[in-house]
Amino acid sequence: MKREIEVFPDHAALALAAAERVTAWCSEAIAQRGVCRMALTGGESPKPLYALLARPPFAERLDWSRMQIFWGDERCVPPDDERSNYRLAWENLLNRVPIAAEQIHRVRGELPPADAAEQYEVELRACRMTPAGTLDIILLGMGADGHTASLFPSKDRFADRAQVKRNRTETSQTVSQADALHERERWVVAQPAKMPPLVPRVTLTPLAINAARHILFLVTGEQKAKRVAQVLAGPYQPDELPAQAIIPQHGDLHWFLDHPAASQL
User: Fold this and answer.
1) Is the pTM of this model over 0.85?
2) Which domains does the chain have, with CATH numbers?
């Protein structure tokens, strides 16, 4: 695995570097395969990046007709809800660039969580993807508890792993935290409400994330510094630090940190 860690003086510098990197990867994918499939993320960290991608010069560098947009996770809320990751991307990026509706593959958060997860996995597979090359680019954030996407720490690993075995014989896409982290078949699962806002979520599993060609973490803020140090320099314990479960199979992994987030490295 190729892992790169870059530290920037502030959020603005990080966003600018991320915009340069993302547009280069998108152009490379389009040149090589005729399409770029990119999964977006929610939270505050990507908002400046989306704003940059939505305007010149970055917006003009991309052939938006060849972009396919997905999400790494979503809260189970309607698309116009202020908590929606889709809404965040729509308001800051997608409604500002020439991209067709059929190129935007959102999680149907207004559906029951298990149905939303199942439908999203069907849509991913319908895009002629395979586990060995599902997405060209996945953008991720990390919470102060070490979670990424909607993959959360498992407080009771043994109880959760017992639940994993039970879920193997069930058809529901709603699983425990440990089940999501250790999933070996499904690309998408639903997660019960875990943290504010207390709504269920739908998330890509590590199986799907780790198949991507390029994975880019965007992490900002001093409140995340301790977890950043634990994830990047501490012992491997993904049940407690789910961001450590992101280990690309064949692609590369990039961490873009602002100075406050990197202050304990």
Assistant:
1) yes
2) 2-258 (3.40.50.1360)
